[in-house]
Fold these 2 entries.
Entry 1:
Amino acid sequence: MNNVKVGIIGAGFMGAAHLENLRRIPGVEITAIADINMSAAQKLAEKFSIAHVYETWQELIADPEIHSVHNCTPNTLHYEINKAAILAGKAILSEKPLTNTAAQSEELVRLAEEKNVLNAVNFSYRNYPLPRYARQLVSNGNLGKIFLVHGHYLQDWLIYPEDYNWRVDVKHGGASRAVADIGSHWCDLVQFITGQKITAVFADLETVHKTRFKPDAEVETFKGKEQSQLKGLREVPVETEDVGMVLFRLESGAKGVFTVSQVSAGHKNCFKIEIDGSRMSLQWDQEEPNQLKMGFRNKANEILVKDSSLLEGESTDFIHYPGGHPEGYPDAFKNLFLNFYATLIKKIPVNFPTFTDGLLENRIVEAILKSSSQKIWVNVE
Ligand SMILES: NC(=O)c1ccc[n+]([C@@H]2O[C@H](COP(=O)([O-])OP(=O)(O)OC[C@H]3O[C@@H](n4cnc5c(N)ncnc54)[C@H](O)[C@@H]3O)[C@@H](O)[C@H]2O)c1
């Protein structure tokens, strides 16, 4: 088969990350980039010698050469673009959240099934080898009965009222910010490792900055720190949460709690998860992704360092370098893309997060929003 021709929509933080990692996938050729910011798309296209640059996503989807679309645009555009790709019969790999509402995601799941279109959502953290191994330990019974799951996902790039990004605005980011943006990754990983769904939530969300200062120009993700250099700041109201604390229950009745925040000084991308079972506990930290900490009551704790000769099962398929050679954030993207294109090209079974996982996340986020506003436990649909 000839190379699969891929188009990327959105040339920002994620567009560049997808592009770089797609370049590591056999059988894939990136032929086009689209962005309303033509100069951003052109810069990326020149850097990586991509043949076509489009100013609108509609032109890219209409390009008959393109078999597969990566949607790396702001959240509110996900529904429209993902739907158009499905209707055009193109494989679609969407950034998270899949859409901004469960109703929109339900429609996409149904349409993709009807049109038999391969689909994925970039819940990237489950594509690291050690969370994979953690899942194996849980499913093999090594942890015993799961008592408790806890952790957090903390960042500081929106700590000041002068920090601004499209995510802050409901119109572009959706009704939830910290929970949908980063909490969705945390919930996806918990469900993936434990093999259990989150069934109920009790949440307390807080918008620390009720107003923020919006600049004339668009601010790139994580560039809030350079905000002070921007001109034309305008004070605007903010409705989305900076912080969230969420109690939850899993299918087995095990309990959990997590905190999300985009205003916690010193925390850059601090994603930690701990699973406490009756025999042992597991801890994984995204900023030290090559270590899995294992806690014991009656013997010394252990730190397992990523090394395929020390792991077994499918987690070894997610390792590409020998022990002592760290792999991290970009490699998780590569792993997801490898599996996605292996399914598209060689028809191997799906082993990546799909639109159905995106829909599950929308339902959790909606339950969290309802719980926080009504101050009640809410079952996840
Ligand atoms: N999986 C992850 O780890 C991860 C990490 C960061 C962001 N994301 C997700 O990726 C998506 C993009 O986030 P980002 O941080 O790259 O944002 P960004 O602001 O850096 O980039 C978004 C790009 O989309 C472009 N764009 C806006 N409107 C457009 C339109 N109508 N047509 C074409 N292009 C348009 C913008 O000009 C910009 O270049 C978001 O949905 C976000 O949630 C996922």
Entry 2:
Amino acid sequence: MTLYRDSALVLRTWKLGESDRIVSMLGQESGKIRAVVKGVRKTKSRFGSRLEPLSLVSILCWKGRELDVVSQAETIELFRAIREDLDRLYKANIILEATEQIAQERFSEPELFKLVVRVLRILDTDNPQMLLGSFIWKLLALQGYRPQMTTCVICGSSNSKVGFDAAMGGVLCGEHANGRRVSSEALDVISKSLDGRLAQILKIENSPVVSETESLALRALESVLERNLRTVRSHIIRH
Ligand SMILES: [Zn+2]
């Protein structure tokens, strides 16, 4: 078996048998990794507690055929401010779940790792309102999802862009928008997010465009994944 070292963000964990755990991580070089942590629930496990969701760790792993095996783990960053604030934690859980769903196993995506860690660092220090919405649009753009933003997806008209439908793949004109209305500010934010102009967008504060962009982004993500996100659904049920 080969041994490898990487920096990785823990996305999700599952119990495995009596005392082991499976950890899903996004490695800087390795892409999405699923690895077994042995004896994590025994008190003598030295590093098991470091492998909790939302921890950035330095790992040493044995490569396995299906699951790798974690040999060592050291904490790099814990994102403490996120863990202590329910609003930030909710956003972080969506970020982790979306990343876990969209990343392909053992497919190296250093750009994706860079984006997710950068966004979590911003959330940890600053929590700008537009962060979650713009992250999701950028995440989708990285995966090749490019909605048509300048002409109506049905008729090709560029006269009036008043609607948006994620599943149809872009903007809609006045004639074809029906109930799928969207503000021009939200369309502007989506375009800028897809282009990665994060710094510019993050200055937008507390306006209806924040929630509009966020819900359009979540709908687009769910249509790309063809499933609902657990985090979003459980949040809606709770409120
Ligand atoms: Zn049209």
